[in-house]
Amino acid sequence: MWAPHRVGLIVPSSNVTMETELPTLLGRHPAAAARGVTFHSSRAVLHRVDTESLRRMVAESERCAAELADARVDVVAYACLIAVMAEGKGAHEAAEERLANALAAAGSPAPVTSSAGALVRTLQRLGARRVAIVTPYLKPLTGLVADYLAAYGIEVVDSVSLEVADNVEVGRLDPARLIGHARGLRLVRADAVVLSACVQMPSLTVIDEASQDLGLPVLSAATATAREILALLAEEPVVPGAGAALVRPAPAVS
Asked: Taking the C-alpha atoms of 166, 67, 235 and 28 in order, what is their torsion angle to the nearest 10 degrees?
């Protein structure tokens, strides 16, 4: 029986951005929009972005997956990048497998991606071995992101940490200011720019402008996640005006 695509999201309780940017992105996809896409979220408590709060949030993820199983979703995205990366190398593979198993055990097997894994895999598809990143995190957490990417052969050549610990306030950051932050990065060695290495910091409205301004491929944790959601739904992962993660073909860098 024909039905709209059903996308399940596991998000921090304070996150508002993924439930805004992902529907916008998939709404721009002609085939997916024609079929219809619905979004269904389960929330794990997170107020402050610090190591202990992230650890408690991760402990709720399997409960969230079991709740989404009741909606018989077609794909699940675990949408908290730093919570996974804080666990160290291999964390996204382990999280995706664990959540897929939880969905299957609840009677609704579905493929799982994570924002952490999607960002790593999309950068690898782009051939981006050296990146510059903008994060809202405190500097030690940005360091964890850099270490995580380095474990997959991706060097962070420069970064900006906006040092906003309150996750609600992260969602209120003005995306128009991101280009100015990115201009302050040392980009001479960078293959690409991750304009928002956080699924809560809005960036979609300035992705294309940033790419033109910086002269480099630009992506975000959200656009990388959208790419993998589309691929797992067997839809071509191409969306206009969404930056390097969602173009045809993925641009290679030297």
From this structure: -50
Amino acid, single-letter form, for residue 86: A
Torsion sign, CA atoms 41, 74, 226, 27: negative
The CATH topology of domain 118-221 is Rossmann fold (3.40.50)
Domain residue limits, the chain: 5-115+222-238, 118-221
Residues with active-site annotation: 80, 198
CATH dotted code for 5-115+222-238? 3.40.50.12500
Q: pTM score, two decimals?
A: 0.93
- Supply φ then ψ for residue 189, to 5 degrees: -105, 0
Tokens of 32: 């997916």
Sequential pLDDT tens for the chain (254 residues): 568 999 999 998 889 999 999 999 999 999 999 999 999 999 988 777 777 777 887 788 889 999 999 999 999 999 988 889 998 999 999 999 999 999 999 999 999 999 999 999 999 999 999 999 999 999 999 999 999 999 999 999 999 999 999 988 999 999 999 999 999 999 999 999 999 999 999 999 999 999 999 999 999 999 999 999 999 999 999 999 999 999 976 444 44
